[in-house]
Design brief:
Layout (H helix, E strand, L loop, with lengths): L12 H11 L16 E2 L10 E2 L2 E8 L41 E4 L16 E10 L5 E7 L5 E6 L2 E7 L5 E4 L7 E10 L24 E7 L2 E9 L11 E9 L6 E6 L4 E6 L5 E7 L14 E7 L6 E7 L4 E4 L2 E4 L2 E2 L2 E6 L13 H13 L4 E4 L6 H10 L2 E5 L11 H18 L5 E8 L5 H17 L5 E5 L3 E3 L2 E3 L10 E5 L16 E3 L5 E5 L18 H15 L5 E4 L7 E2 L12 E2 L12 H11 L7
Parallel strand pairs: 22-23, 22-32, 23-24, 24-25, 25-26, 26-29, 28-30, 29-31, 31-32
Antiparallel strand pairs: 1-9, 2-11, 3-4, 3-5, 5-10, 6-9, 6-11, 7-8, 7-10, 12-13, 13-16, 14-15, 14-17, 17-18, 19-20, 20-21, 27-28, 33-34
The structure holds alpha-D-glucopyranuronic acid.
């Protein structure tokens, strides 16, 4: 969550000066306005911009008593401790008892847990520091871009705090323009992975709480007025028909006066249009695009979309790769480009195959997408948080549709308005980063939350917020509030009324009932498209036995067989994602020799070995034998 440091919004200097005259106490009108405060924002399309990478080795210091270094005794942020990046005077009187220059290093991006044994289970504060050379250019602005930092982070450049952020899985940008100087500079970032009751997620999670600067860090330099946000999509009105090929959306230029020119070009579609911004810096557009090839799993067509504004050294241009498609719900069907589809795939945590740790590079992503394509999947639920942007880029290229969700997992403080504000911020950050990715077809606002009025109101509001932010995609959520009595199963959950697509998590045959009992269960469900968003069983790869012997590969297949028998009887079933593609680390999974700190519902082991379940699901998907579009 971006927390403005400056309480005073960025005002036009003249207005700010006026305010300074009339609002400062004791007639201090003569005071000159404070220097412009660093801006905190989120630039769209960063991975398609020229950046100065700050990835690599950063010094780090573990801060196990953060109420001396990061926090003051009252819990405020201490701007005068490690952030100063001074050096101890070890021969004379001193009070500095830290030194980054002689400290060890961690790789960025990268969770700290898998980089050094001392930090494997560490969930506290780690301070990162690195030096970097920089030559500010007049008439430009520079932002420090952080792809993700789990969970709370505080950022200083040259001893000045430029931003704070809460949320472990979405990017943020902190303006450093006024604090950078020519030559050598340094950045210090404190990352606090401590779980918080009022956090999102809260304290009880079923995955390893990997901490650190888990995604890329870079410097982005842009002209004083630049393109910070854009939305280019196929026009999506209720009257849309497959033949309608109009593109619409907006381009936003930060701090640009009304009437600023901006150009949208899609050469391969024969589109070039000149626009002008309105008073809010936004240039809305609608253009016909008769020659468009729509994006789909069978034809994942992407177009080079170039946006530009300004001239000379004030020119800002960005070329993104964007696919155009229509996704909507019609009765109990999900329509892609007007045709009913069935989504067959798997869940995936952002866990790197083989090496472990958070996914943060192209190789990790290529391995995971290799598994999905080998599974005959056309869909993936990126659980339980927005993944590294490389995942959605790969999905765009490979034609794999995506369910993307914020980490609102099970129990959070639904009664607190400040927690709702955090959820909205995370939703905005997720949608802003990925709204131009055709592969993302569903936004999910939560996973498995308790069925009570406070939660239902919270999530209904959040689902409506998501629909307002992006009217072009259906809104979903994974519910585990079904009620199974003998052979009847229902979903008595009012929150389902707020969803376009229902996600149903249930583990008949593993957590409840027997595998065979699933065959006779009859579901009564809302007349909406339904995705079986979680089901499955655990098996230790290589552990074999009878189909009624739990933890064997054979029993895992047996559960999936009966699950598919049950699920395929649900008429509105429009997708299924077994939990989960790959075994993943979870400290709550402590059965020695079977789990050893891993959740073993994977179709593949953490070291890349396919279980029998993988091949069972692979064949079911090849035969399209589970559900119908
Ligand atoms: C839940 C939850 C998952 C969890 C899974 C399990 O449905 O959504 O995050 O890992 O069950 O118990 O294995």
């Amino acid at each position: 969550m971006l927390r403005p440091i400056a309480l005073v919004p960025r005002l036009a200097p003249s207005l700010f000066a006026l305010l300074a005259v009339f609002v400062l106490p004791h007639g201090l009108g003569a005071q000159t306005p404070a220097a412009p405060q660093p801006l905190q924002t989120l630039l769209v399309g960063v991975d398609h911009r020229q950046v100065v990478s700050l990835d690599g080795d950063w010094h780090y210091l573990v801060d196990q008593s953060p109420y001396r270094a990061l926090y003051t005794p009252t819990g405020a942020i201490n701007d005068r401790s490690y952030a100063m990046n001074t050096h101890p005077n070890i021969v004379g009187p001193h009070n500095e008892e830290y030194d980054f220059a002689t400290a060890p290093t961690l790789k960025v991006p990268g969770d700290w847990n898998t980089q050094t044994p001392e930090l494997f289970n560490y969930e506290g504060v780690v301070w990162y520091q690195r030096n970097f050379d920089f030559q500010p250019k007049p008439g430009t602005r520079t932002f420090l871009h952080i792809g993700a930092a789990n969970y709370r982070s505080h950022v200083w450049v040259n001893q000045e705090r430029i931003c704070d952020h809460e949320g472990g899985y979405t990017p943020f940008d902190c303006e450093a323009t006024t604090v950078l100087h020519p030559g050598s500079n340094f950045v210090v970032i404190a990352v606090d992975a401590t779980r918080m009751v009022d956090g999102i997620p809260s304290v009880g999670i079923d995955w390893l709480n990997y901490g650190g600067l888990t995604r890329d860090v870079s410097l982005i330099t842009v002209p004083t007025a630049f393109i910070d946000d854009y939305d280019v999509h196929l026009a999506h009105g209720p009257a849309w028909k497959p033949g309608n090929k109009e593109l619409t959306g907006y381009i936003h230029i930060l701090d640009a006066p009304a009437g600023t020119p901006v150009t949208l070009e899609i050469p391969e579609a024969g589109i070039k249009t000149s626009l002008r911004t309105d008073a809010d810096g936004r240039a809305p557009f609608t253009v016909t695009a008769d020659k468009l090839t729509l994006w789909s799993p069978d034809s994942p067509k992407l177009y080079k979309v170039t946006l530009s504004t300004g001239a000379g050294d004030q020119r800002d241009t960005i070329s993104d790769d964007i696919g155009f498609r229509d996704i909507r719900v019609d009765g109990t069907h999900i329509l892609l480009n007007g045709k009913p589809i069935y989504l067959q795939g798997a869940n995936a945590h952002a866990e790197a195959p083989i090496r472990g740790g958070r996914v943060d590079n192209d190789q990790d992503v290529a391995t995971l997408f290799g598994y999905l394509k080998d599974l005959n999947a056309n869909f993936v639920r990126l659980a339980h948080y927005p993944h590294d942007e490389r995942m959605e880029r790969a999905a765009d290229r490979d034609g794999i549709m995506v369910w993307s969700e914020i980490p609102l997992w099970q129990h959070i403080s639904f009664e607190k308005p400040e927690v709702y504000a955090k959820a909205v911020t995370m939703l905005k950050e997720m949608i802003r980063r990925d709204r131009n990715k055709a592969s993302v077809i569903l936004w999910s606002v939560s996973n498995e939350t308790p069925n009570n009025p406070t939660r239902t109101e919270f999530l209904t509001n959040l689902a409506n917020e998501a629909r307002t932010l992006d009217p072009t995609r259906p809104i979903t959520s994974a519910l585990n509030t079904s009620h199974i009595e003998g052979t009847t199963a229902t979903l008595p959950d009012l929150f389902a009324n707020a969803l376009d697509v229902i996600g149903l998590n249930q583990y008949v045959g593993w957590y409840t009932g027997t595998p065979e009992s699933a065959d006779s269960i009859q579901w009564t469900l809302p007349q909406k498209p339904l995705i079986a968003s979680e089901f499955g069983a655990e098996a230790k790869q290589g552990n074999h036995g009878a189909t009624n012997q739990r933890w064997t590969e054979e029993q895992q297949v047996f559960v999936l067989q009966h699950q598919f028998t049950m699920l395929s009887k649900i008429p509105q079933l429009r997708g299924d994602t077994p939990w989960i593609l790959m075994d993943f680390r979870s400290p709550t999974r402590n059965i020695p020799k079977l789990q050893d700190g891993y959740n073993r519902k994977g179709l593949i082991s953490e070291d890349g070995k396919k279980k029998q379940a993988f091949f069972f699901v692979q064949k079911a998907y090849k035969d399209h034998s589970v559900g119908k579009p």
